[in-house]
Amino acid sequence: MNRILITGSLGQIGSELALELRKRYGNDNVVVTDIRRVEGSKAMESGPFELLDCTDANAIADLVKKYRVDTIYHLAAILSANAEKNPQLAWNININGLYNVLEVARELKCSVFTPSSIGAFGPTTPKDGTPQDTIQRPTTMYGVTKVSGELLCDYYHKRFGVDTRGVRYPGLISYVAPPGGGTTDYAVEIYYEALKNKKYTCYLKKGTHLDMMYMPDGIKAAIDVMEADPNKLIHRNAFNVTAMNFAPEDIEAAIKKVIPEFTMDYDVDPVRQDIADSWPNYMDDSSAREEWGWKPNYDLDSMTDDMIEKLSKKLNINI
Ligand code: NAD
Ligand code: SER
């Protein structure tokens, strides 16, 4: 990777990935793009920024040529809960946007990182220790686009030799940029509410186990898989990766260790509960560990300590 372009860079992942890539590869070598501007965003202001709609293939090609890009991190997408509100938009952005990126990568010889998700699995997938290669019959539009995306990326590698790689992210937790309308967003909101109001009403019910990961590990996964030795990769799109799995009551207990007066109740949202119930309880990420040395640094307690420390500074709240 010498010259990198990121799509959808001002969202939850891109806001932090852009800064880490710029630290490693140089500010001018990482082109940050998004369909919108976010005033005050460090990712937007610390190096080249361009407005880019990933449904416009010519615009992607123009920027790849202008900046002599060799690697694309394609993050632009509609997440699970928002995709259920507007499935047509989700199909257009998640599928046609990815197709455009892959076509540009084929023509202009770029490598491509595309995140998939725990949402690529469905109710008939084995729920505990979900294997790398298993049944994928998702029942959400988000999942349909993620499975199709995994297959399309593998096809471009096999058929055209495009260096495509990806991971199946679990729910990502971070304090820099807000999450973009997913089912796992409660695990971010809960920290804000714990600090601001000492209480949180959770929209998923007790006992809903899902894989999760702290953003520094998510960024590490994206960079490590792209820097991995291609000769060691048996899989490409997309590797199961996880760092922890928990249910709402587990994160409540972890927060209580730091903020003892914190309380949580429940008001279940049937749409997001249905989505969560169709996803794995926890994935087996041994292929990522074996093929490119994946290993997360944060568990629930160490993430909670760091989130509360960083967020209390950001929100200017003493605990
Ligand atoms: P996000 O919603 O926070 O950010 C997406 C960005 O894409 C936004 O800044 C948005 O403005 C931009 N965008 C929307 N439409 C666009 C278009 N037509 N052209 C260009 N940009 C457009 O999402 P995120 O959490 O940063 O996720 C990035 C990727 O990682 C997605 O593919 C998502 O499915 C995947 N992922 C995320 C998580 C998570 O927990 N955050 C988990 C699994 C997978
Ligand atoms: N965090 C994401 C979502 O809930 C998982 O892909 O949509």
Detail the poorly predicted runs: none
* Major sheet: 6 strands, parallel
Bound compounds:
nicotinamide-adenine-dinucleotide, serine
> Overall 3D geometry?
globular
Percent in strands: 15-25%
Annotated CATH topology of the largest domain: Rossmann fold
| Fraction in helix | 40-55%
Into how many domains do the coordinates divide?
2
Rg: 19 Å
Query: Can you list the strand order of the major beta sheet?
Result: 3-2-1-4-5-8
What does this molecule look like?
Strand 2, helix 2 and strand 3 (about 50) form a beta-alpha-beta unit. The strands form five sheets. The chain has a six-stranded parallel beta sheet, with helices on both faces. The protein is an alpha/beta fold and about 325 residues long. It has twelve helices and 16 strands. About 45% of the residues lie in helices and about 15% in strands. The structure holds nicotinamide-adenine-dinucleotide and serine (SER). Serine (SER) binds near residues 117, 182 and 184.
Secondary structure layout plus pairing:
Blueprint: E1 4-7, H1 14-25, E2 30-34, H2 42-45, E3 49-51, H3 57-66, E4 71-74, H4 80-85, H5 87-108, E5 111-113, E6 116-117, E7 128-130, H6 141-160, E8 164-165, E9 167-169, E10 171-173, H7 186-196, E11 199-202, E12 210-214, H8 215-227, E13 239-240, E14 244-246, H9 248-258, E15 263-266, H10 270-277, E16 282-283, H11 286-292, H12 300-315
Parallel strand pairs: 1-2, 1-4, 2-3, 4-5, 5-8, 6-9, 7-16, 9-13, 10-12, 11-15
Antiparallel strand pairs: 12-14
Bound molecules: nicotinamide-adenine-dinucleotide and serine.
